[in-house]
Amino acid sequence: MYELTILAEFEAAHQLPDYPGKCCRLHGHNWKVEVTVAGHELNHLGMVMDFKDLKAEVGKVIDMLDHYFLNDLPAFKTMNPTAENIAKYIYDSLAEQSIFQQAIKIRCVQVWESPRSAVKYCPQG
Questions:
Q1: Catalytic residue check, 122
Q2: Which candidate in 14, 29, 57, 113 is catalytic?
Q3: Between residues 14 and 102, the one the model is more confident about
Q4: Which EC number(s) are documented for this chain (predicted)?
Q5: Choosing from 23, 34, 84, 108, which is the catalytic residue?
Q6: Binning pLDDT at 50, 70 and 90, where does residue 37 land?
Q7: CB of 2 within 8 A of CB of 9?
Q8: Are 110 and 87 in contact (CB under 8 A)?
């Protein structure tokens, strides 16, 4: 099994209503997102997937979050835009792309909301 990981970034604001602390107020982060994909086979170039193509697919999802107030986005109307929910949202959005429904699978998505705080979403199975 081969695994590829890319790093992407976006900036966005959010707030966590009912949170018992400062995060209940409007604030922002410079989010970092690590996406790891895996595959068993290499293409004719000796790659599971071109890093450029993976970055492009992740970029499409990140663009829907970048410089937004996350609470206003449809995906977060019914759930708090926590790092956990953002990681799952990115994973699910990528999993819908046809490129990740064949030989290449998304292994996990890790979201960093600060240099020392991250969440990793890796579904079982």
A1: no
A2: 113
A3: 14
A4: 4.-.-.-
A5: 23
A6: very high
A7: no
A8: yes
Q: Which residue has the tokens 């997102």?
A: 33
**Tokens of residue 113, six digits:** 């909301």
The CA–CA distances, whole Å, from 121 to 41, 69, 90 equal: 24, 22, 9
pLDDT digits (tens, 9 = 90+) for 54-76: 999 999 999 999 999 999 999 99
23 flagged as catalytic: yes
Q: Per the structure block, which two tokens stand in for 5? A: 């990981």
Scanning the structure block, which residue is given the tokens 């792309």? 97
Catalytic site residue 67? Answer: yes
DSSP letter string, 48-84: SS-HHHHHHHHHHHHHTTTTSBGGGSGGGSSS---HH
Angle between helices 51-63 and 83-95 (to 10 degrees): 120
Length of the chain: 125
Residue 125: the pLDDT is 55
